[in-house]
Amino acid sequence: MIKHHGGCHCGRVRFEVQAAAIINVSECNCSICSKSGYLGMTVPRDRFTLESGEDCLTRYTFDSGVAKHLFCKHCGIKSFYIPRSHPDGVNVNARCLDPGTVEKMNITQFDGKNWERYYPNGRAEGFPN
After folding, report:
1. What does the pLDDT average to over 10-38?
2. What does the pLDDT read at residue 113?
3. 3.40.47.10, 2.60.120.260, 3.40.50.300, 2.170.150.70: CATH of 2-118
4. Concatenated DSSP letters for the chain?
């Protein structure tokens, strides 16, 4: 595990996440991820630290209301969120990681349009990263 740093476009929201140098991310085809170009990496909450900008975050929920989509209210970027698949974890937008620490990014397609087919119990087991 190494420390990766990242944040939103304007720099008000900053975070640190512990993950491997080679990361596994999902490119989801659900309505919110596909429209925003989000590449997600889910980690346990204890491997994520919000360093600054908590007061700059605004929350958006839809459908089941379990996922907590957090956006910078100044620049509109979603650099991380609490996913409904892993409500005890954090999903980090790999596109918001600072350059220099990610050696390689393995991208897997995920069919989020049919989310219930993959997670019939409403959540996933374990963490992929």
Report:
1. 95
2. 87
3. 2.170.150.70
4. -EEEEEE-SSSSSEEEEEE-SEEEEEEE-SHHHHHHT-EEEEEEGGGEEEEE-GGGEEEE--TTS-SEEEEETTT----EEE-SS-TTEEEEEGGGBPTTS-SEEEEEEE-GGGHHHH-TTSS-SS---
| Percent of the chain residues topping a pLDDT of 90 | 71
Rounded CA separation 103/30 (Å) = 27
Q: 29: left (phi > 0), else alpha (psi -120 to 50), else beta?
A: alpha
Q: How does pLDDT run across 63-89, given as a tens digit for each residue?
A: 777 789 999 999 999 999 998 888 899
Enumerate the domain spans of the chain.
2-118
